[in-house]
Amino acid sequence: MSLLYRRVLLKLSGESLMGNQSYGIDPPMLTHYANQIKDLRDLGVEIAIVIGGGNIFRGLQAHDSGIERVQGDYMGMMATVINGMALQSALESVGVFTRLISAIEMKEIAEPYIRRRAIRHLEKGRVLIFSAGTGSPYFTTDSAAALRANEINADVILKGTRVDGIYSADPEIDPDAKRFDEISFDEVISRNLRVMDMTAFTLCKENNLPIVVFDVLKKGNLQRIAIGEPVGTVVKN
Fold it and tell me: Domains of the chain, with CATH numbers?
């Protein structure tokens, strides 16, 4: 089977692990993601994943609780490690070999990030789970996804969401909202469409790295994207 994308970085939000819960990790959602990622890996696609931590702790909201911003951001990074460990366990339970990699050293549970070693893992068919963001405060997991995707020479960032692409307005509010099949980086900026945070978005634009925004809850979407079927919205130069 011909592949459009041979090496991808999948960006998942921490909230996507909650399912219908108000916080935490919903086991059926973990199983869903593990099976979808396994199916994609079975096509021969090399996969890296960046997952957020908003289902456990969101650093940007820490200020409201009296926690200093930098400290809150580090707490958010720890939340992504917890999610990464959960996803690793789910993937290995379905027979997928993984490596959990942390931008903050915690050698008992995760490998440190070494670019050449990470690429070698991908070449050997292992699924990489990048955790702890960039390892620095003030950067989101979107920024971590853009940074790692460029470092490992990924063909595309697959940004999994709860909607089936990018719309001209919120489709839940505006029934006339138009969905884009394809849109340029410049048009996203001019329309002020919130695809990723601006740091991440600019990094992708400058390095000509496309982003596909798609419904991650629909079974089979990852495989369809990999073989070039029109799924979601493609953002490119």
Answer: 7-236 (3.40.1160.10)
pLDDT for res 8:
98
Residues pairing with 7 in the sheet: 46
Residues 148, 80: contact at Cβ < 8 Å?
Answer: no
pLDDT digits (tens, 9 = 90+) for 36-54: 999 999 999 999 999 999 9
Q: What is the DSSP letter of 192?
A: T
Distances (CA, A) of 43 to 33, 139, 142, 215, 224: 16, 33, 26, 20, 11
β-pairing, 233-236 with 211-215? Answer: antiparallel
Q: Which residues of the chain have pLDDT under 50?
A: none
Largest CA distance in the chain: 54
Whose tokens are 């993984």? That residue is 98
| 74-113: pLDDT as tens digits | 999 999 999 999 999 999 999 999 999 999 999 999 999 9
Measured CA to CA, the distance from residue 198 to residue 108 in angstroms comes to: 34
Distance CA 155, CA 9 (A): 8
Alpha-carbon separation of residue 205 from 89, 93, 106, 142, 164 (angstroms): 34, 37, 32, 14, 22
| Residue among 217, 184, 181 at smallest CA distance from 201 | 184
